[in-house]
């Protein structure tokens, strides 16, 4: 689960990770009131969407309107808020369609001496979280990783112990942080690592991490992702979810307990088991097709869930064919067959449908499908199924 920058900074503040003062605003009037409340001459109006690159991004409505605006007075704050709220911001991370801005964060401005990068992720190979820092802040870190990987410094840490003093000193040396700023970093770095562990984050990125003219170390940006599988341990985080940011079909699938990720292709996939879903996508690609989604209906899917899954797949205008690949273990082939027939009645199959069923109650399932009046292309195995759906959607 992702959250907005303003929400992340609120959590940072409580966890002792230094951030600047700021207020969220949903209207231009509120933004001006926030500016007055902050009482700082320089303030920054920042669009709040679940995507980065806002500083360089512009709105669809006005190619001069950037997603992050430095303002010197109330009129500039009003103009920036009016230019952003209700508008669609396109950044390198939103894709062409952009994202609608529903609120801005009005934050005190600060005197930036240096812009660094800091990120924490779980390093699966090392089986530990890893703190990454770089002198190249404010820039796309992917570019730094590709072109100048020697400028990214990493320290793994034990989640039970946290980041240790010698590790902070090592990183400060590499980043050229000395004196009062190094003292501030010695508080900042362990605090953000503790935050990552305490909140079960899967990613925590601060770009830029700034050193101010008076040697403070401050998180100027906050991009946080929580591990959804651990959310049950953090009930107070749930209200931070902004459903308007979720892909509508993914939100709908999640409400039905389905694992669904929308993709760019045109072949809808209905599969049970994450491993089988991955290999189905691979084999579709191998035979020259493009999957429209990843969908794992799960081991114990019931008829309502599978019917809902079909409705989501068929509701995607890009979907030009559906491949059902089920290995009935706990889920029975008869349940899937019944859901196919139900989906045929409620939404109707206007696109080709290839079905490959194996496993529990397969004979009965096949019989049900043979007796219904839906046009089905039967497949004998996964390769046969992939070839048939690719041919049918070409
Ligand atoms: P994004 O990563 O989406 O572009 P950031 O929060 O990193 O958004 O902001 C972009 C840039 O705007 C930063 O690199 C920084 O130079 C500037 N900036 C952001 N917040 C402030 C602030 N409070 N004071 C001064 N400059 C800021
Ligand atoms: Mg940033």
From TrEMBL:
Residues 9-55 form the ATP-grasp domain. It holds the Pfam family ATP-grasp_2. InterPro entries: ATP-grasp, ATP-grasp_succ-CoA_synth-type, ATP_grasp_subdomain_1, Succ-CoA_synthase_bsu_CS, SUCC_ACL_C, Succ_CoA_ligase-like_bsu, Succinyl-CoA_synth-like. One of its GO terms (biological process) is tricarboxylic acid cycle. It comes from the Bacteria. Pathway: Carbohydrate metabolism; tricarboxylic acid cycle; succinate from succinyl-CoA (ligase route): step 1/1. Substrate binds at residues 272, 329-331. Its EC number is 6.2.1.5. It catalyses: succinate + ATP + CoA = succinyl-CoA + ADP + phosphate; GTP + succinate + CoA = succinyl-CoA + GDP + phosphate. Its cofactor is Mg(2+). It is an enzyme of class 6 (ligase). Heterotetramer of two alpha and two beta subunits. Belongs to the succinate/malate CoA ligase beta subunit family. This is Succinate--CoA ligase [ADP-forming] subunit beta. It comes from Rubripirellula obstinata. The gene is sucC.
């Amino acid at each position: 689960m992702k959250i907005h920058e303003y929400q992340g900074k609120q959590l940072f503040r409580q966890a002792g990770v230094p951030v600047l003062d700021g207020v969220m605003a949903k209207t231009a009037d509120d933004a001006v009131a926030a500016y007055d409340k902050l009482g700082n001459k320089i303030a920054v109006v920042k669009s709040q969407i679940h995507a980065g690159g806002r500083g360089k991004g512009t709105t669809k409505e006005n190619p001069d309107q950037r997603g992050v605006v430095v303002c010197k007075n109330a009129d500039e704050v009003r103009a920036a808020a009016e230019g952003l709220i209700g508008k669609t911001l396109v950044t390198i991370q939103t894709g062409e369609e952009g994202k609608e801005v529903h609120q801005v964060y009005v934050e005190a401005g600060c005197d930036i001496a240096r812009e660094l990068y800091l990120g924490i992720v779980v390093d699966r190979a090392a089986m530990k979280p890893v703190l990454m820092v770089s002198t190249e802040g404010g820039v796309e870190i992917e570019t730094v990783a590709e072109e100048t990987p020697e400028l990214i410094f990493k320290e793994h840490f034990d989640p039970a112990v946290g980041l240790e003093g010698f590790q902070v000193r090592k990183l400060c040396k590499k980043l050229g942080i000395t004196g009062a700023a190094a003292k501030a970093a010695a508080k900042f770095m362990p605090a953000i690592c503790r935050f990552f562990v305490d909140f079960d984050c899967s990613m925590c990125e601060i770009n830029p991490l700034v050193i101010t003219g008076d040697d403070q170390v401050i998180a100027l940006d906050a991009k946080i992702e929580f591990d959804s599988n651990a959310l049950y341990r953090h009930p107070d985080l749930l209200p931070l979810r902004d459903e308007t940011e979720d892909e509508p079909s993914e939100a709908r699938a999640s409400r039905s307990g389905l694992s669904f990720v929308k993709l760019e292709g045109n072949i809808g996939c209905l599969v049970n088991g994450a491993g089988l879903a991955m290999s189905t996508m691979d084999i579709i690609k191998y035979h020259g097709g493009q999957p429209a989604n990843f969908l794992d209906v799960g081991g114990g899917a019931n008829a309502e869930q599978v019917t809902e899954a079909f409705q989501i797949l068929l509701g995607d205008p890009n979907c030009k064919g559906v491949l059902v690949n089920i290995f009935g273990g706990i889920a029975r082939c008869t349940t899937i067959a019944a859901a196919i027939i139900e989906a045929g009645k409620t939404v109707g199959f206007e696109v080709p449908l290839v079905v490959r069923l194996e496993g529990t109650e397969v004979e009965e399932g096949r019989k049900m499908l043979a007796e219904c009046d839906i046009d089905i292309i039967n497949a004998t195995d996964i390769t046969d199924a992939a070839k048939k759906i690719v041919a049918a959607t070409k």
